[in-house]
Design brief:
Shape: globular
Radius of gyration: 23 Å
Largest sheet: 9 strands, mixed
CATH class of the largest domain: Alpha Beta
CATH topology of the largest domain: Phosphoenolpyruvate Carboxykinase, domain 3
Bound molecules: guanosine-5'-triphosphate, sulfopyruvate, manganese (II) ion
CATH architecture of the largest domain: Alpha-Beta Complex
Oligomer: single chain
Distance between the termini: 67 Å
């Protein structure tokens, strides 16, 4: 596309001197042949989509079955977030802390500008303005991503409020996050996801995958967001937000932190089982929560995103019917399989396994093939407006008041189905010491238990010890803090099967949580926290679910718990000099109770 040079952006771009200067500087550096300023319009979407199809970046899917849907295949060396190539570049290593990779800002700028120099020759630079949060929200933040990926430009349009709306919010002198993204040659040797919190800047090179390159999401909304949140007294968390409406019309909101690929999107969109007629779950957000104390002393949350970038495998009309509707139109799929009739397929989809298809790398696949047809971290990017369960409050700039915060992980043993923290400080301890088996959402081995505090290990933009301190301090700003809970949908019995059916049935656990928040449900005091009584979780109508199974799902094995406390040492050692003493005392109290 031949477009105006950068010095003459489209009308509608504010006369923002710092913005113009930075864009010009980056053009000078990257030397694109063309510069295209995105406005977020429908017409622009059509033009860019057609160009992406022509370039082979997107494959048009069967438009009768899947209107507005396209498939993207990433480079096989580029299929997930890369934690070992993700850097927090603060002035001192202490500010980034022992759980982050650190490089001095000067050194990193020099390296990345070196890689970006001339990197867009023969290419187009897309200037992508976006808003995280909704117009009018005190939490909303503007970002501008300069990218040479049309896939990123089109995905940002789905995932954020992209275009004119962001320019309007920015105005002539607003603050914005600078983001530079160069694909380079998609080579892991030249791949860096670098954050400069003190400059409100992100530079990402050498990747074209999800969380590495959709800079509003993990980079701005979590890493830079958490950094800003500490300074500005709010919280940026890796949490879904959902609304629970009872048959009598009572409404409660909860936010839940589960690590990547551990069930946030599914939980946020769940459809209650038949027995819960009249109950309704609505989605405010599926991945990220920005939370701030409201004037009434409660914690209010917004979802800064406008779309979902969800895990595809395992999604079907039983596990997540709302997601099936959501991704039936206007969706960009990444790394799923393609059937001969232009439909998409993945392991765990409804209906028969196709006799043949093209796998995520475009190779012929049949049921006899040894490898999976869809990549385990294949994803959909779909606008939240398509979610049948979308909460109207998802667009409310004031957000929703949170009654419960839930931490959860993927743990085959030890962690019971649900328990409640004794109080806020104990809840912070539970979140800080949570662990989960690693998943395909990040490059590296899967299935290994690692500590993942508050599901933020890969996303906290500063020292984790200071982050815990920030959590503890937030209590002082809240008159009515949310109650804190821990759940584990993934505990297994001796037969290796999950002890809890999960998905929509999680409503049963959620009801206990909401009832606890409203002072309605009784609980046992146990060494680890408050737990439901034996009939506390309603299992009416749950097929093949003998009471013994619930007993096992809720059981506490004190030997396992002692090991668990010892395993926490790894994190405590790592963070020792930064750890708030409250957490050390909580650990002592737990040991004494055990
Ligand atoms: P990210 O987008 O990476 O942050 O993941 P997420 O936390 O949103 O996870 P998601 O809801 O996409 O679920 C990830 C995987 O866990 C999928 O394969 C689901 O099928 C599976 N899963 C989700 N909920 C449950 C559950 O309640 N029980 C079981 N057994 N599996 C679940
Ligand atoms: C996650 O890994 O937590 C995701 C996917 O939500 S990504 O956007 O790639 O970070
Ligand atoms: Mn996530």
């Amino acid at each position: 596309m031949t477009t105006a040079p950068a010095s003459q952006p489209k009308s509608g771009v504010p006369p923002h001197a710092a913005l113009r200067a930075w864009v010009n500087e980056m053009i000078e550096l990257c030397q694109p042949d063309h510069v295209y300023w995105c406005d977020g319009s429908e017409a622009e979407k059509e033009t860019l989509t057609a160009q992406a199809v022509e370039a082979g970046v997107l494959i048009e899917l069967n438009q009768e079955k899947l209107p507005g849907c396209y498939l993207h295949r990433s480079n096989p060396n580029d299929v997930a977030r890369v934690e070992e190539l993700t850097f927090i570049c603060t002035r001192t290593p202490e500010a980034a802390g022992p759980t982050n990779n650190w490089k001095a800002p000067r050194e990193m700028y020099e390296k990345l500008y070196g890689l970006a120099r001339g990197a867009m020759r023969g290419r187009t630079m897309y200037v992508v303005p976006y808003l995280m949060g909704m117009p009018g929200s005190p939490l909303a933040k503007v970002g501008v991503e300069l990218t040479d990926s049309i896939y990123v430009a089109l995905s940002m349009r789905i995932m954020t409020r992209m275009g004119q709306i962001a320019w309007d919010t920015l105005g002539a002198d607003g603050r914005f996050t600078k983001g530079l993204h160069c694909m380079l040659d998609i080579n892991p040797e030249r791949r860096y996801i670098a954050h400069f919190p003190q400059d409100n800047t992100i530079i990402s090179v050498g990747s074209n995958y999800g969380g590495n390159v959709l800079l509003g999401k993990k980079c701005l909304a979590l890493r830079l967001g958490s950094y800003l949140g500490r300074i500005e007294h709010w919280m940026a968390e890796h949490m879904l937000i959902l609304g629970v409406e009872s048959p009598t019309g009572e409404k409660n909101y909860v936010a839940a932190a589960f690590p990547s690929a551990c069930g946030k999107t599914n939980f946020a969109m769940l459809i209650p089982p038949k027995h819960f007629a009249g109950w309704k779950i609505t989605t405010v957000g599926d991945d990220i929560a920005w939370m701030k104390p409201g004037p009434n002393g409660r914690l209010y949350a917004i979802n800064p995103e406008a779309g979902y970038f969800g895990v595809v495998p395992g999604t079907n009309s039983k596990s997540n019917p709302n997601a099936m509707v959501l991704m039936a139109r206007d969706t960009i799929y990444t790394n799923v399989a393609l059937t001969p009739d232009g439909d998409v397929w993945w392991e765990g989809k409804d209906g028969p396994v196709p006799e043949q298809c093209l796998d995520w790398q475009g190779r012929l696949w049949t049921p006899a093939s040894k490898e999976k047809a869809a990549h385990p971290n294949s994803r959909f990017a779909a606008p939240m407006a398509n979610n049948p369960a979308l909460a109207p409050e998802a667009n409310d700039p004031h957000g929703v008041p949170i009654s419960a915060l839930i931490f959860g992980g993927r743990r085959a043993t030890t962690l019971p189905l649900v328990f409640q923290a004794f109080n806020w400080i104990h809840g912070v301890y539970i979140g800080a010491t949570m662990a989960s088996e690693t998943t395909a959402a990040a490059a590296g081995a899967t299935g290994q238990v690692r500590r993942d505090p508050m599901a933020m290990l890969p996303f906290c933009g500063y020292n984790m010890g200071d982050y815990f301190r920030h959590w503890l301090r937030m209590r002082k700003l809240l008159k009515r803090p949310p109650n804190v809970f821990c759940v584990n949908w993934f505990r297994k019995g001796a037969d290796g099967q999950f002890l809890w059916p999960g998905y929509g049935e999680n409503m049963r656990v959620l009801k206990w949580i909401v009832d606890r928040c409203r002072g309605r449900a009784p609980a046992w005091e146990t060494p680890v926290g408050w737990m439901p009584e034996s009939d506390g979780i309603d299992t009416t109508g749950l097929p093949d679910y003998p009471p013994e199974k619930m007993t096992e799902a809720l059981s506490l094995n004190l030997e396992e718990w002692k090991r668990e406390v010892l395993m926490q040492d790894e994190l405590f050692f790592k963070l020792y000099s930064d750890l708030p003493k409250e957490l050390i005392f909580q650990r002592e109290l737990l040991i004494s109770r055990l």
